[in-house]
Amino acid sequence: MFAVTVTFKIKEGEMSDFLPLMENNARLSLERERGCHRFDVCTDPGREDEVFLYEVYSDRAAFDLHLTSDHFLSFDKEVSEMIASKSVATFERVVP
């Protein structure tokens, strides 16, 4: 198992455009990528400019495949100007 967390800070006034694109990327990842097992898109009303992702893949190779998928590349291009900052962390399962 390979887990990925991503925290986005979204530029002011961009969340209403960003969130539907993010949700679509998550849906397509789950539908089209055999190695993608979970893709949660999370927000907190107290941090209106922040989006947190929790993704689970079979392994690092499945995540790397995700990064080259057409739907991810399209999403990444569409939202690049909406993002103020982005932090990514990856984790490999230690105990089965």
From TrEMBL:
Q: Which UniProt keywords are given for this protein, alphabetically ordered?
A: Monooxygenase, Oxidoreductase
Tell me which InterPro entries the record gives.
ABM_dom, AI-2_Isomerase_LsrG, Dimeric_a/b-barrel
Source organism's superkingdom?
Bacteria
- What Pfam families does the annotation carry? ABM
Q: Where is the ABM domain?
A: 2-91
One MF term in the entry's GO annotations: monooxygenase activity
How is this protein named in the record? Antibiotic biosynthesis monooxygenase
Q: Which organism is it from?
A: Roseibium polysiphoniae
